[in-house]
Amino acid sequence: MASQSRVLRSFPCRGQRGFYFSMDVLLFLFIIAFGTVLVLAALPGRAPKTQPLSIADSLASFLATTTTRDVIGYTSGITFTSLDRTILEQAALFITDGNPDDAKGLVKDVIVKTNAVPSSYSVRVELELMDEALYLRASRSEDDSEFLISSKRIVFFYDAASGRVIGPSIAEVRIWRGEAT
Fold first, then answer.
1. Does 173 lie in the same domain as 143?
2. Cα gap 54→118, rounded to integer Å
3. Structural domain that includes position 123
4. DSSP per residue over the chain, as a string?
5. pLDDT digits (tens, 9 = 90+) for 39-81
6. Do 56 and 86 share a domain, yes or no?
């Protein structure tokens, strides 16, 4: 017993009830701080600028290289004369033939039904042959946007059925941040 009381007397915190309470509080604060850091790290942040750049470029490439044969299931009420034209070529042909509504419908159906652009971004697709946009989804103007990314392609082809050269014309895809309504 004597050796045990000697150990208790040499323990530096004997009789200091506040020491244990302070250690409990510090441990509690550490756990809360660590949990807060974990929760904040798991929350989604703003998308990096490289994401809209890749979205604009991939959408422009998709419209310039995908044939109407590949997307015929996404369109309704549109008659194609050739399934080997790309989406932009077919839209340019519709416009030069005086059917801009078919061009708009084609581009809209393809973009909407393939979910090509996330809803957190606004998008505008233009073809130089038209005064207005082929497709527009935006809740705020481009002027009020946080950023604006543009990707362009040239549309130029020979229409064997009519013997005409269509183009060259510039197709532009613009992406900016803005929730779609």
1. yes
2. 12
3. 50-177
4. -HHHHHHHHHSTTTT-HHHHHHHHHHHHHHHHHHHHHHHHHHS--PPPTHHHHHHHHHHHHHHHH-BHHHHGGG--S---S-TTSBHHHHHHHHHHTT-HHHHHHHHHHHHHHTT-S-TTEEEEEEETTSSS-SEEE-SS-GGGSS-EEEEEEEEEEEETTTTEEEEEEEEEEEEEE----
5. 888 877 665 666 778 889 999 999 999 998 998 888 888 888 8
6. yes
Tokens standing for 176? 């900016």
> What amino acid is encoded at 12 in this protein?
P
Determine which of 7-11, 26-30, 92-96, 107-111 has the lowest per-residue pLDDT on average: 7-11
pLDDT tens per residue, range 123-167: 999 998 888 899 999 877 888 887 888 999 999 888 888 888 887
Site of tokens 């509504």: 101
- State whether 60 and 116 are in the same domain: yes
